[in-house]
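REQUEST FORM: STRUCTURE PREDICTION
Request ID: SP-0412
Submitted by: Lab K.M.
Chain count: 1
Length (residues): 637
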Amino acid sequence: MDSVRYWKTSSIFSINLEPGTQARIDLSFEIMIPSKKVAVCNSVGIDADGYAMIHSPSRWTNSSKDLSIFTYYPWQLAYCSSILKRDTDHEVKFFDGCLKKWDHDTFVDKVSEFGPDYLIMDSATRTIAADSRFAKEIKKRFGTKLIFCGPHATTFPDEVAEYADFVVSREYELVCRDIVQGKDPNDIVGLYPNGIRPLLDVNDLPLPEDDDVSRLDYGMPGEPSSEYLEIQAYASRGCPLSCTFCVCGNISYERPNWRPRNPENVVYELQTLREKYPQMEGIFFDEEVHNGSKKYILDLTKAIRENGLDDLRYDVMCGQWPLDEEVLNAMRSAGYYMVRLGIETAGQPAAEGMQLMKKFNVPRLRQLMRYGTSIGLKFYGTFTFGGQQATDDCDKRTIAMINEMIDEGILWRFQLSISTPQPGTPYYNWAKENKYLRDLDWKHFDGGNCVVVDQPGYSAEQIMTNFREAEKAYEKGFNHRYSITAKDTFESLDIETPERVLVFRSTRMKQMNHVIDSLRHSYEKCKLTVLAQSDVEEELNSNPKIDEVLIYGKGHFNPEAFPNALLENQKRRGYSLGVIPFNNISGNGYAHVKALAHSLGIKKLVAINIEGKIFDLENPGDQGRSHWPLASETAAV
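STATUS: Completed
RESULT:
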Protein backbone atom coordinates (compact mmCIF):
# COMPACT_ATOMS: atom_id res chain seq x y z
CA MET A 1 0.00 0.00 0.00
CA ASP A 2 1.35 3.44 -0.93
CA SER A 3 2.30 5.68 1.96
CA VAL A 4 0.37 8.91 2.42
CA ARG A 5 2.31 12.14 2.85
CA TYR A 6 0.92 14.88 5.11
CA TRP A 7 1.42 18.54 5.69
CA LYS A 8 0.41 20.45 8.84
CA THR A 9 -1.61 23.58 9.35
CA SER A 10 -2.01 25.36 12.69
CA SER A 11 -5.17 27.27 13.62
CA ILE A 12 -6.28 29.42 16.56
CA PHE A 13 -9.95 30.10 17.21
CA SER A 14 -11.39 32.58 19.72
CA ILE A 15 -14.91 31.96 21.00
CA ASN A 16 -16.69 34.89 22.65
CA LEU A 17 -19.62 34.15 24.94
CA GLU A 18 -22.80 36.16 25.27
CA PRO A 19 -22.44 39.96 25.15
CA GLY A 20 -21.51 41.38 28.53
CA THR A 21 -19.69 38.29 29.77
CA GLN A 22 -15.98 38.36 30.62
CA ALA A 23 -15.04 34.78 29.67
CA ARG A 24 -13.25 33.83 26.46
CA ILE A 25 -12.00 30.44 25.26
CA ASP A 26 -8.95 30.13 22.96
CA LEU A 27 -8.41 26.86 21.10
CA SER A 28 -5.18 26.08 19.30
CA PHE A 29 -4.62 22.85 17.38
CA GLU A 30 -2.89 21.33 14.34
CA ILE A 31 -4.68 19.61 11.49
CA MET A 32 -2.88 16.86 9.57
CA ILE A 33 -3.96 17.10 5.93
CA PRO A 34 -2.81 14.62 3.27
CA SER A 35 -0.40 16.22 0.82
CA LYS A 36 -1.44 16.45 -2.79
CA LYS A 37 0.14 15.23 -6.00
CA VAL A 38 0.86 18.02 -8.45
CA ALA A 39 1.73 17.30 -12.08
CA VAL A 40 3.44 20.17 -13.91
CA CYS A 41 3.07 19.42 -17.62
CA ASN A 42 4.45 20.90 -20.81
CA SER A 43 2.36 20.42 -23.93
CA VAL A 44 1.48 17.20 -25.69
CA GLY A 45 4.44 16.30 -27.90
CA ILE A 46 2.72 14.86 -30.99
CA ASP A 47 -0.75 16.14 -31.90
CA ALA A 48 -3.61 14.22 -33.51
CA ASP A 49 -2.39 15.20 -36.99
CA GLY A 50 1.09 13.80 -36.37
CA TYR A 51 2.91 17.12 -35.87
CA ALA A 52 5.66 17.46 -33.27
CA MET A 53 5.23 20.57 -31.15
CA ILE A 54 8.05 23.10 -30.75
CA HIS A 55 6.55 24.94 -27.81
CA SER A 56 8.33 28.21 -27.13
CA PRO A 57 7.47 29.98 -23.84
CA SER A 58 6.53 33.68 -24.19
CA ARG A 59 6.81 33.47 -28.00
CA TRP A 60 4.94 31.73 -30.77
CA THR A 61 4.81 27.96 -31.01
CA ASN A 62 5.17 26.03 -34.23
CA SER A 63 5.29 22.39 -35.30
CA SER A 64 7.01 19.96 -37.60
CA LYS A 65 6.40 16.62 -39.29
CA ASP A 66 9.96 15.75 -38.30
CA LEU A 67 9.28 13.79 -35.12
CA SER A 68 12.92 13.97 -34.06
CA ILE A 69 12.85 17.77 -33.98
CA PHE A 70 14.31 19.62 -30.99
CA THR A 71 12.17 21.38 -28.41
CA TYR A 72 12.79 24.35 -26.14
CA TYR A 73 13.29 24.01 -22.41
CA PRO A 74 9.94 25.17 -20.93
CA TRP A 75 11.58 27.64 -18.59
CA GLN A 76 8.54 29.24 -16.99
CA LEU A 77 6.95 25.88 -16.17
CA ALA A 78 10.36 24.75 -14.95
CA TYR A 79 10.55 27.69 -12.54
CA CYS A 80 6.99 26.92 -11.46
CA SER A 81 7.95 23.33 -10.68
CA SER A 82 10.99 24.31 -8.61
CA ILE A 83 8.97 26.92 -6.68
CA LEU A 84 6.32 24.35 -5.80
CA LYS A 85 8.99 21.91 -4.66
CA ARG A 86 10.60 24.63 -2.54
CA ASP A 87 7.52 26.27 -1.05
CA THR A 88 5.05 23.40 -0.54
CA ASP A 89 5.06 19.94 1.04
CA HIS A 90 3.18 18.48 -1.89
CA GLU A 91 4.54 15.78 -4.16
CA VAL A 92 5.42 17.64 -7.36
CA LYS A 93 6.43 15.91 -10.59
CA PHE A 94 7.41 17.52 -13.88
CA PHE A 95 6.42 15.96 -17.24
CA ASP A 96 7.42 17.20 -20.70
CA GLY A 97 5.46 15.70 -23.57
CA CYS A 98 7.37 17.84 -26.08
CA LEU A 99 10.77 16.62 -24.96
CA LYS A 100 9.67 12.98 -24.84
CA LYS A 101 7.62 13.25 -28.06
CA TRP A 102 4.60 11.73 -26.31
CA ASP A 103 1.31 11.61 -28.18
CA HIS A 104 -2.05 11.88 -26.42
CA ASP A 105 -2.34 8.25 -25.34
CA THR A 106 1.26 7.95 -24.17
CA PHE A 107 1.10 11.22 -22.24
CA VAL A 108 -2.13 10.17 -20.55
CA ASP A 109 -0.60 6.83 -19.56
CA LYS A 110 2.56 8.43 -18.16
CA VAL A 111 0.71 10.99 -16.05
CA SER A 112 -1.88 8.41 -14.99
CA GLU A 113 0.91 6.45 -13.30
CA PHE A 114 1.30 9.47 -11.03
CA GLY A 115 -2.44 10.10 -10.51
CA PRO A 116 -2.32 13.86 -9.83
CA ASP A 117 -4.66 15.90 -7.66
CA TYR A 118 -3.61 19.03 -9.58
CA LEU A 119 -2.47 19.40 -13.18
CA ILE A 120 -0.70 22.60 -14.30
CA MET A 121 -0.32 23.32 -18.03
CA ASP A 122 1.10 26.26 -19.98
CA SER A 123 -0.64 26.24 -23.37
CA ALA A 124 -0.16 28.25 -26.52
CA THR A 125 -2.90 28.76 -29.05
CA ARG A 126 -1.20 26.25 -31.35
CA THR A 127 -1.27 23.54 -28.65
CA ILE A 128 -4.57 24.24 -26.91
CA ALA A 129 -6.63 21.57 -28.71
CA ALA A 130 -4.22 18.75 -27.85
CA ASP A 131 -3.54 20.07 -24.34
CA SER A 132 -7.19 20.49 -23.36
CA ARG A 133 -8.06 17.02 -24.67
CA PHE A 134 -5.23 15.55 -22.61
CA ALA A 135 -6.15 17.47 -19.45
CA LYS A 136 -9.84 16.53 -19.69
CA GLU A 137 -8.91 12.86 -19.83
CA ILE A 138 -6.74 13.16 -16.71
CA LYS A 139 -9.58 14.99 -14.94
CA LYS A 140 -12.03 12.29 -15.97
CA ARG A 141 -9.82 9.55 -14.55
CA PHE A 142 -8.76 11.13 -11.26
CA GLY A 143 -11.00 14.12 -10.59
CA THR A 144 -7.87 16.23 -11.03
CA LYS A 145 -8.10 19.99 -10.55
CA LEU A 146 -6.93 21.62 -13.77
CA ILE A 147 -4.80 24.79 -13.65
CA PHE A 148 -4.31 26.35 -17.09
CA CYS A 149 -1.74 29.09 -17.68
CA GLY A 150 0.06 30.71 -20.55
CA PRO A 151 -0.86 32.85 -23.57
CA HIS A 152 -4.07 31.11 -24.61
CA ALA A 153 -5.53 30.96 -21.10
CA THR A 154 -4.64 34.63 -20.57
CA THR A 155 -6.33 35.67 -23.81
CA PHE A 156 -9.41 33.43 -23.64
CA PRO A 157 -10.07 32.84 -19.92
CA ASP A 158 -13.81 32.23 -20.30
CA GLU A 159 -13.25 29.62 -23.01
CA VAL A 160 -10.61 27.81 -20.95
CA ALA A 161 -12.69 28.07 -17.75
CA GLU A 162 -15.29 25.78 -19.35
CA TYR A 163 -13.01 22.83 -18.49
CA ALA A 164 -10.26 24.22 -16.24
CA ASP A 165 -10.87 24.69 -12.52
CA PHE A 166 -8.40 27.57 -12.37
CA VAL A 167 -7.33 29.96 -15.12
CA VAL A 168 -4.20 31.98 -14.44
CA SER A 169 -3.45 35.24 -16.23
CA ARG A 170 0.01 36.28 -17.39
CA GLU A 171 3.02 35.47 -15.18
CA TYR A 172 1.83 32.44 -13.29
CA GLU A 173 4.44 30.77 -11.05
CA LEU A 174 3.41 32.37 -7.74
CA VAL A 175 -0.29 32.14 -8.56
CA CYS A 176 0.03 28.38 -9.02
CA ARG A 177 1.82 28.16 -5.68
CA ASP A 178 -1.03 30.00 -3.95
CA ILE A 179 -3.60 27.67 -5.52
CA VAL A 180 -1.96 24.41 -4.46
CA GLN A 181 -1.25 25.85 -1.00
CA GLY A 182 -5.01 25.99 -0.62
CA LYS A 183 -5.50 29.74 -0.36
CA ASP A 184 -8.95 31.18 -0.90
CA PRO A 185 -9.33 31.61 -4.69
CA ASN A 186 -11.08 34.93 -4.12
CA ASP A 187 -7.90 36.25 -2.50
CA ILE A 188 -5.39 35.08 -5.12
CA VAL A 189 -4.32 37.97 -7.33
CA GLY A 190 -3.55 36.79 -10.85
CA LEU A 191 -6.19 34.07 -10.75
CA TYR A 192 -8.94 34.94 -13.20
CA PRO A 193 -11.00 37.08 -12.69
CA ASN A 194 -9.20 38.65 -9.72
CA GLY A 195 -6.97 41.09 -11.56
CA ILE A 196 -3.33 41.14 -12.60
CA ARG A 197 -0.58 40.14 -10.19
CA PRO A 198 2.49 42.40 -9.85
CA LEU A 199 5.57 41.13 -11.66
CA LEU A 200 7.75 38.82 -9.60
CA ASP A 201 11.34 39.49 -8.53
CA VAL A 202 13.54 37.29 -10.72
CA ASN A 203 16.27 37.28 -8.08
CA ASP A 204 13.99 35.44 -5.65
CA LEU A 205 13.59 32.50 -8.02
CA PRO A 206 15.21 29.14 -7.28
CA LEU A 207 17.09 27.41 -10.10
CA PRO A 208 14.56 25.93 -12.54
CA GLU A 209 13.55 22.27 -12.77
CA ASP A 210 16.45 19.89 -13.35
CA ASP A 211 15.44 16.70 -11.52
CA ASP A 212 12.45 15.09 -13.20
CA VAL A 213 13.92 16.12 -16.55
CA SER A 214 17.53 16.93 -17.33
CA ARG A 215 18.27 20.38 -18.69
CA LEU A 216 21.06 18.81 -20.70
CA ASP A 217 18.55 16.65 -22.57
CA TYR A 218 17.15 19.76 -24.28
CA GLY A 219 20.54 20.16 -25.93
CA MET A 220 20.40 16.66 -27.51
CA PRO A 221 19.39 17.58 -30.13
CA GLY A 222 19.55 21.21 -29.22
CA GLU A 223 18.27 24.26 -31.02
CA PRO A 224 19.57 23.60 -34.57
CA SER A 225 21.71 26.73 -34.84
CA SER A 226 23.54 26.17 -31.56
CA GLU A 227 27.02 24.94 -32.41
CA TYR A 228 27.90 23.33 -29.09
CA LEU A 229 26.25 21.14 -26.48
CA GLU A 230 24.42 24.01 -24.81
CA ILE A 231 22.03 24.28 -21.88
CA GLN A 232 19.31 26.92 -22.09
CA ALA A 233 19.42 29.54 -19.34
CA TYR A 234 17.84 32.93 -18.62
CA ALA A 235 19.76 35.90 -17.25
CA SER A 236 16.71 38.16 -17.48
CA ARG A 237 13.00 38.20 -18.12
CA GLY A 238 10.87 40.43 -20.33
CA CYS A 239 11.61 43.07 -22.96
CA PRO A 240 11.45 46.88 -22.74
CA LEU A 241 9.89 47.12 -26.22
CA SER A 242 6.36 46.25 -27.27
CA CYS A 243 6.31 45.06 -30.87
CA THR A 244 2.73 44.49 -31.96
CA PHE A 245 3.25 40.78 -32.75
CA CYS A 246 5.07 39.95 -29.52
CA VAL A 247 3.59 37.53 -26.98
CA CYS A 248 6.07 38.59 -24.30
CA GLY A 249 5.29 42.28 -23.83
CA ASN A 250 1.61 42.08 -24.72
CA ILE A 251 0.39 38.85 -23.11
CA SER A 252 2.90 37.16 -20.81
CA TYR A 253 3.68 40.29 -18.78
CA GLU A 254 0.93 42.75 -19.92
CA ARG A 255 3.38 45.59 -20.39
CA PRO A 256 6.96 46.23 -21.53
CA ASN A 257 9.44 45.39 -18.82
CA TRP A 258 12.95 44.00 -18.47
CA ARG A 259 14.12 42.35 -15.25
CA PRO A 260 17.75 41.18 -15.09
CA ARG A 261 19.08 38.72 -12.55
CA ASN A 262 22.05 39.82 -10.49
CA PRO A 263 25.31 38.77 -12.21
CA GLU A 264 26.36 36.76 -9.15
CA ASN A 265 23.04 34.90 -9.33
CA VAL A 266 23.69 34.00 -12.97
CA VAL A 267 27.27 32.97 -12.20
CA TYR A 268 26.02 30.66 -9.45
CA GLU A 269 23.71 28.93 -11.92
CA LEU A 270 26.50 28.53 -14.48
CA GLN A 271 28.81 27.05 -11.84
CA THR A 272 26.06 24.68 -10.68
CA LEU A 273 25.36 23.51 -14.23
CA ARG A 274 29.06 23.03 -15.00
CA GLU A 275 29.54 20.93 -11.87
CA LYS A 276 26.49 18.77 -12.61
CA TYR A 277 27.15 18.44 -16.35
CA PRO A 278 30.92 18.46 -17.05
CA GLN A 279 30.22 17.54 -20.68
CA MET A 280 28.33 20.81 -21.17
CA GLU A 281 30.11 23.01 -23.71
CA GLY A 282 28.08 26.19 -23.58
CA ILE A 283 24.97 28.13 -22.63
CA PHE A 284 22.14 29.33 -24.85
CA PHE A 285 20.81 32.47 -23.14
CA ASP A 286 17.36 32.21 -24.69
CA GLU A 287 15.53 34.99 -22.88
CA GLU A 288 13.61 37.68 -24.76
CA VAL A 289 16.53 40.12 -24.74
CA HIS A 290 19.79 39.24 -23.01
CA ASN A 291 21.32 42.70 -23.19
CA GLY A 292 18.56 45.00 -22.00
CA SER A 293 21.11 47.53 -20.77
CA LYS A 294 24.75 48.22 -21.61
CA LYS A 295 25.80 48.39 -17.96
CA TYR A 296 24.25 45.03 -17.20
CA ILE A 297 25.95 43.17 -20.03
CA LEU A 298 29.30 44.73 -19.13
CA ASP A 299 28.85 43.66 -15.49
CA LEU A 300 27.74 40.15 -16.45
CA THR A 301 30.56 39.52 -18.91
CA LYS A 302 33.05 40.79 -16.33
CA ALA A 303 31.64 38.36 -13.73
CA ILE A 304 31.85 35.49 -16.23
CA ARG A 305 35.52 36.25 -16.90
CA GLU A 306 36.45 36.75 -13.24
CA ASN A 307 34.88 33.41 -12.28
CA GLY A 308 36.69 31.43 -14.97
CA LEU A 309 33.57 30.72 -16.99
CA ASP A 310 34.82 32.35 -20.17
CA ASP A 311 35.93 28.98 -21.56
CA LEU A 312 32.26 28.11 -22.10
CA ARG A 313 30.60 29.19 -25.35
CA TYR A 314 27.63 31.57 -25.11
CA ASP A 315 24.87 31.87 -27.67
CA VAL A 316 22.56 34.81 -26.87
CA MET A 317 19.29 36.49 -27.89
CA CYS A 318 19.95 40.24 -28.07
CA GLY A 319 18.54 43.57 -29.17
CA GLN A 320 20.64 45.77 -31.38
CA TRP A 321 19.80 49.09 -29.68
CA PRO A 322 21.96 48.54 -26.52
CA LEU A 323 24.87 47.17 -28.59
CA ASP A 324 28.04 49.07 -29.41
CA GLU A 325 31.67 48.17 -30.02
CA GLU A 326 32.50 48.12 -26.31
CA VAL A 327 29.69 45.66 -25.56
CA LEU A 328 30.64 43.42 -28.49
CA ASN A 329 34.26 43.34 -27.31
CA ALA A 330 33.13 42.44 -23.79
CA MET A 331 30.95 39.63 -25.13
CA ARG A 332 33.76 38.23 -27.24
CA SER A 333 36.20 38.30 -24.33
CA ALA A 334 33.75 36.36 -22.12
CA GLY A 335 33.29 33.46 -24.52
CA TYR A 336 30.24 34.67 -26.43
CA TYR A 337 30.36 33.29 -29.96
CA MET A 338 26.92 33.95 -31.52
CA VAL A 339 24.66 36.98 -31.19
CA ARG A 340 21.04 36.54 -32.27
CA LEU A 341 19.22 39.68 -33.36
CA GLY A 342 15.53 40.27 -34.08
CA ILE A 343 15.97 42.09 -37.39
CA GLU A 344 12.45 41.26 -38.67
CA THR A 345 12.22 43.39 -41.82
CA ALA A 346 14.00 45.78 -44.19
CA GLY A 347 10.77 47.62 -45.05
CA GLN A 348 9.81 50.90 -43.39
CA PRO A 349 5.99 50.34 -43.57
CA ALA A 350 6.31 46.95 -41.90
CA ALA A 351 8.67 48.32 -39.24
CA GLU A 352 6.16 51.06 -38.44
CA GLY A 353 3.23 48.65 -38.39
CA MET A 354 5.04 46.26 -36.07
CA GLN A 355 6.25 49.18 -33.92
CA LEU A 356 9.83 47.97 -33.98
CA MET A 357 11.03 51.37 -32.77
CA LYS A 358 14.69 51.09 -31.69
CA LYS A 359 14.96 47.65 -33.28
CA PHE A 360 14.75 49.17 -36.75
CA ASN A 361 17.96 50.90 -37.81
CA VAL A 362 19.38 49.05 -40.80
CA PRO A 363 22.54 51.20 -41.32
CA ARG A 364 23.50 50.89 -37.64
CA LEU A 365 22.68 47.17 -37.74
CA ARG A 366 25.05 46.58 -40.64
CA GLN A 367 27.78 48.59 -38.91
CA LEU A 368 27.48 46.52 -35.73
CA MET A 369 27.46 43.22 -37.63
CA ARG A 370 30.54 44.18 -39.61
CA TYR A 371 32.45 45.11 -36.48
CA GLY A 372 31.32 42.03 -34.56
CA THR A 373 32.28 39.76 -37.45
CA SER A 374 35.73 41.37 -37.59
CA ILE A 375 36.42 40.36 -33.97
CA GLY A 376 35.20 36.79 -34.41
CA LEU A 377 31.51 36.94 -33.43
CA LYS A 378 28.85 35.25 -35.52
CA PHE A 379 25.45 36.86 -36.16
CA TYR A 380 22.10 35.14 -36.40
CA GLY A 381 19.12 37.15 -37.64
CA THR A 382 15.40 36.54 -37.31
CA PHE A 383 13.19 37.75 -40.16
CA THR A 384 9.42 37.75 -40.45
CA PHE A 385 7.18 37.92 -43.50
CA GLY A 386 3.68 39.35 -43.79
CA GLY A 387 3.90 41.44 -40.64
CA GLN A 388 1.42 44.15 -39.71
CA GLN A 389 1.24 46.70 -42.55
CA ALA A 390 3.87 44.78 -44.52
CA THR A 391 3.76 45.07 -48.30
CA ASP A 392 5.08 42.91 -51.08
CA ASP A 393 7.89 45.46 -51.51
CA CYS A 394 8.78 45.30 -47.78
CA ASP A 395 9.27 41.57 -47.87
CA LYS A 396 11.17 41.62 -51.15
CA ARG A 397 13.53 44.18 -49.60
CA THR A 398 13.98 41.80 -46.67
CA ILE A 399 14.90 38.96 -49.04
CA ALA A 400 17.42 41.22 -50.78
CA MET A 401 18.93 42.25 -47.43
CA ILE A 402 19.33 38.63 -46.33
CA ASN A 403 21.17 37.79 -49.55
CA GLU A 404 23.37 40.89 -49.29
CA MET A 405 24.34 40.08 -45.70
CA ILE A 406 25.23 36.50 -46.64
CA ASP A 407 27.35 37.73 -49.56
CA GLU A 408 29.12 40.19 -47.30
CA GLY A 409 29.79 37.47 -44.75
CA ILE A 410 28.11 39.22 -41.81
CA LEU A 411 25.03 36.96 -41.49
CA TRP A 412 26.13 33.50 -40.32
CA ARG A 413 22.69 31.97 -39.70
CA PHE A 414 19.10 33.12 -39.81
CA GLN A 415 15.51 32.19 -39.02
CA LEU A 416 12.50 32.87 -41.22
CA SER A 417 8.93 32.98 -39.97
CA ILE A 418 5.49 33.93 -41.16
CA SER A 419 4.25 36.75 -38.96
CA THR A 420 1.31 35.11 -37.22
CA PRO A 421 -1.10 37.23 -35.14
CA GLN A 422 -1.12 35.44 -31.81
CA PRO A 423 -4.44 36.01 -30.00
CA GLY A 424 -4.13 38.75 -27.43
CA THR A 425 -1.52 40.77 -29.30
CA PRO A 426 -2.23 44.15 -30.93
CA TYR A 427 -1.49 42.53 -34.29
CA TYR A 428 -4.28 39.98 -33.74
CA ASN A 429 -6.74 42.65 -32.61
CA TRP A 430 -5.89 44.82 -35.63
CA ALA A 431 -6.30 41.94 -38.07
CA LYS A 432 -9.57 40.82 -36.50
CA GLU A 433 -11.10 44.31 -36.33
CA ASN A 434 -10.23 44.94 -39.97
CA LYS A 435 -11.50 41.50 -41.05
CA TYR A 436 -8.07 40.47 -42.37
CA LEU A 437 -8.08 37.09 -40.61
CA ARG A 438 -8.81 34.36 -43.11
CA ASP A 439 -8.59 31.44 -40.68
CA LEU A 440 -9.59 30.90 -37.05
CA ASP A 441 -8.53 27.26 -36.81
CA TRP A 442 -6.06 27.50 -33.93
CA LYS A 443 -3.81 24.75 -35.28
CA HIS A 444 -3.04 27.04 -38.25
CA PHE A 445 -1.68 29.78 -35.97
CA ASP A 446 1.74 28.34 -36.64
CA GLY A 447 4.39 30.71 -37.95
CA GLY A 448 6.38 27.99 -39.60
CA ASN A 449 3.69 26.54 -41.82
CA CYS A 450 0.60 28.71 -42.37
CA VAL A 451 -0.51 32.22 -43.36
CA VAL A 452 -3.75 33.28 -41.66
CA VAL A 453 -3.89 36.95 -42.72
CA ASP A 454 -4.95 38.65 -45.97
CA GLN A 455 -3.81 42.28 -45.94
CA PRO A 456 -5.10 44.86 -48.46
CA GLY A 457 -2.93 44.60 -51.54
CA TYR A 458 -0.87 41.79 -50.04
CA SER A 459 -2.64 38.44 -50.01
CA ALA A 460 -1.82 35.34 -48.00
CA GLU A 461 -0.70 33.66 -51.22
CA GLN A 462 1.77 36.48 -51.96
CA ILE A 463 3.11 36.32 -48.41
CA MET A 464 3.72 32.59 -48.74
CA THR A 465 5.39 33.10 -52.13
CA ASN A 466 7.86 35.58 -50.61
CA PHE A 467 8.42 33.31 -47.63
CA ARG A 468 9.28 30.39 -49.94
CA GLU A 469 11.57 32.63 -51.97
CA ALA A 470 13.39 33.64 -48.79
CA GLU A 471 13.86 29.99 -47.90
CA LYS A 472 16.14 29.62 -50.93
CA ALA A 473 18.67 31.69 -49.02
CA TYR A 474 19.13 28.78 -46.61
CA GLU A 475 21.02 26.91 -49.32
CA LYS A 476 23.11 29.98 -50.08
CA GLY A 477 23.91 30.45 -46.39
CA PHE A 478 24.88 26.80 -46.05
CA ASN A 479 27.21 26.97 -49.03
CA HIS A 480 28.80 30.13 -47.60
CA ARG A 481 29.46 28.50 -44.23
CA TYR A 482 30.64 25.27 -45.81
CA SER A 483 33.11 27.09 -48.06
CA ILE A 484 34.65 28.62 -44.93
CA THR A 485 34.67 25.63 -42.58
CA ALA A 486 35.20 22.73 -44.99
CA LYS A 487 38.17 24.01 -46.96
CA ASP A 488 40.91 21.35 -47.06
CA THR A 489 39.07 19.44 -44.34
CA PHE A 490 40.96 16.16 -44.49
CA GLU A 491 44.33 17.73 -45.26
CA SER A 492 44.32 19.02 -41.70
CA LEU A 493 44.43 15.46 -40.32
CA ASP A 494 47.77 14.45 -38.88
CA ILE A 495 47.88 10.96 -40.43
CA GLU A 496 49.76 9.13 -43.16
CA THR A 497 47.99 8.94 -46.50
CA PRO A 498 45.36 6.22 -45.97
CA GLU A 499 45.21 3.25 -48.31
CA ARG A 500 41.62 2.22 -47.57
CA VAL A 501 38.88 4.61 -46.46
CA LEU A 502 35.39 3.63 -45.29
CA VAL A 503 32.62 6.27 -45.35
CA PHE A 504 29.34 5.62 -43.55
CA ARG A 505 26.30 6.96 -45.38
CA SER A 506 24.88 8.63 -42.28
CA THR A 507 23.63 11.91 -43.74
CA ARG A 508 21.81 13.32 -46.75
CA MET A 509 23.28 12.70 -50.18
CA LYS A 510 24.19 16.33 -50.81
CA GLN A 511 26.50 16.32 -47.82
CA MET A 512 27.76 12.83 -48.68
CA ASN A 513 28.86 14.10 -52.07
CA HIS A 514 30.74 16.99 -50.42
CA VAL A 515 32.53 14.53 -48.13
CA ILE A 516 33.43 12.22 -51.03
CA ASP A 517 34.78 15.19 -53.03
CA SER A 518 36.92 16.35 -50.08
CA LEU A 519 38.30 12.85 -49.48
CA ARG A 520 39.18 12.31 -53.12
CA HIS A 521 40.82 15.75 -53.26
CA SER A 522 43.00 14.95 -50.25
CA TYR A 523 43.67 11.25 -50.92
CA GLU A 524 43.61 10.82 -54.67
CA LYS A 525 44.94 7.24 -54.74
CA CYS A 526 43.09 5.70 -51.78
CA LYS A 527 40.50 2.94 -52.20
CA LEU A 528 37.26 4.59 -51.14
CA THR A 529 34.38 2.40 -49.93
CA VAL A 530 30.91 3.62 -48.90
CA LEU A 531 28.71 1.59 -46.56
CA ALA A 532 25.11 2.55 -47.32
CA GLN A 533 21.41 1.74 -47.51
CA SER A 534 19.74 0.14 -50.49
CA ASP A 535 17.67 3.19 -51.43
CA VAL A 536 20.79 5.17 -52.46
CA GLU A 537 22.71 2.32 -54.08
CA GLU A 538 22.13 3.49 -57.65
CA GLU A 539 23.11 7.09 -56.94
CA LEU A 540 26.31 6.08 -55.14
CA ASN A 541 27.32 3.62 -57.85
CA SER A 542 27.05 6.42 -60.42
CA ASN A 543 29.66 8.51 -58.60
CA PRO A 544 33.06 7.89 -60.30
CA LYS A 545 34.95 9.05 -57.19
CA ILE A 546 33.71 6.03 -55.20
CA ASP A 547 35.55 2.73 -55.71
CA GLU A 548 33.08 0.43 -53.95
CA VAL A 549 29.54 0.59 -52.55
CA LEU A 550 28.49 -1.93 -49.91
CA ILE A 551 24.78 -2.26 -49.06
CA TYR A 552 23.68 -3.53 -45.66
CA GLY A 553 19.90 -3.07 -45.94
CA LYS A 554 17.51 -0.29 -45.01
CA GLY A 555 17.19 2.19 -42.17
CA HIS A 556 19.71 3.57 -39.70
CA PHE A 557 22.96 1.95 -38.68
CA ASN A 558 22.42 -0.37 -35.73
CA PRO A 559 25.12 -2.75 -34.48
CA GLU A 560 22.53 -5.24 -33.21
CA ALA A 561 20.72 -5.48 -36.55
CA PHE A 562 23.75 -5.23 -38.85
CA PRO A 563 24.35 -8.33 -41.05
CA ASN A 564 26.93 -10.45 -39.25
CA ALA A 565 28.66 -11.73 -42.41
CA LEU A 566 29.14 -8.18 -43.70
CA LEU A 567 30.39 -7.08 -40.29
CA GLU A 568 33.06 -9.80 -40.15
CA ASN A 569 34.12 -9.05 -43.71
CA GLN A 570 34.65 -5.38 -42.93
CA LYS A 571 36.69 -6.20 -39.84
CA ARG A 572 39.15 -8.10 -42.03
CA ARG A 573 39.55 -5.19 -44.45
CA GLY A 574 41.85 -3.22 -42.16
CA TYR A 575 40.61 0.29 -43.02
CA SER A 576 43.14 3.07 -42.49
CA LEU A 577 40.49 5.75 -42.08
CA GLY A 578 36.78 5.73 -41.20
CA VAL A 579 34.57 8.77 -41.78
CA ILE A 580 31.12 9.40 -40.25
CA PRO A 581 29.31 12.45 -41.68
CA PHE A 582 26.98 14.21 -39.22
CA ASN A 583 23.83 15.85 -40.57
CA ASN A 584 23.94 18.30 -37.66
CA ILE A 585 26.57 20.47 -35.99
CA SER A 586 27.49 18.60 -32.82
CA GLY A 587 26.90 14.93 -33.66
CA ASN A 588 24.11 14.41 -31.14
CA GLY A 589 22.27 11.19 -31.93
CA TYR A 590 25.10 9.24 -33.58
CA ALA A 591 25.82 6.70 -30.84
CA HIS A 592 24.75 3.67 -32.88
CA VAL A 593 26.76 4.40 -36.00
CA LYS A 594 29.81 5.25 -33.87
CA ALA A 595 29.48 1.99 -31.96
CA LEU A 596 29.34 0.09 -35.23
CA ALA A 597 32.37 1.94 -36.60
CA HIS A 598 34.39 1.27 -33.44
CA SER A 599 33.62 -2.45 -33.71
CA LEU A 600 35.32 -2.64 -37.13
CA GLY A 601 38.81 -1.96 -35.81
CA ILE A 602 39.40 1.06 -38.07
CA LYS A 603 42.86 2.54 -37.50
CA LYS A 604 41.70 6.19 -37.47
CA LEU A 605 38.05 7.21 -36.97
CA VAL A 606 36.79 10.75 -37.56
CA ALA A 607 33.50 12.54 -38.07
CA ILE A 608 32.69 15.58 -40.17
CA ASN A 609 29.73 17.76 -39.34
CA ILE A 610 27.31 19.57 -41.61
CA GLU A 611 29.59 22.59 -41.79
CA GLY A 612 32.79 20.70 -42.56
CA LYS A 613 34.30 20.71 -39.08
CA ILE A 614 36.20 17.53 -38.33
CA PHE A 615 36.06 15.57 -35.05
CA ASP A 616 38.66 13.07 -33.89
CA LEU A 617 36.54 10.27 -32.43
CA GLU A 618 39.56 8.49 -30.96
CA ASN A 619 41.05 11.48 -29.10
CA PRO A 620 38.25 14.03 -28.59
CA GLY A 621 40.23 15.93 -25.97
CA ASP A 622 42.97 16.70 -28.49
CA GLN A 623 40.61 18.29 -31.00
CA GLY A 624 41.39 21.99 -31.03
CA ARG A 625 39.09 23.19 -33.79
CA SER A 626 35.88 21.91 -32.24
CA HIS A 627 34.51 20.17 -29.16
CA TRP A 628 33.12 16.67 -29.06
CA PRO A 629 29.97 16.37 -26.92
CA LEU A 630 30.45 13.16 -24.98
CA ALA A 631 26.82 13.28 -23.83
CA SER A 632 25.69 12.41 -27.34
CA GLU A 633 26.62 8.80 -26.55
CA THR A 634 23.28 8.58 -24.77
CA ALA A 635 21.34 9.56 -27.86
CA ALA A 636 20.25 7.30 -30.69
CA VAL A 637 20.12 7.67 -34.43
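NOTES: The chain has three domains: 37-187, 214-484, 490-634.
Reviewed by: T.R.
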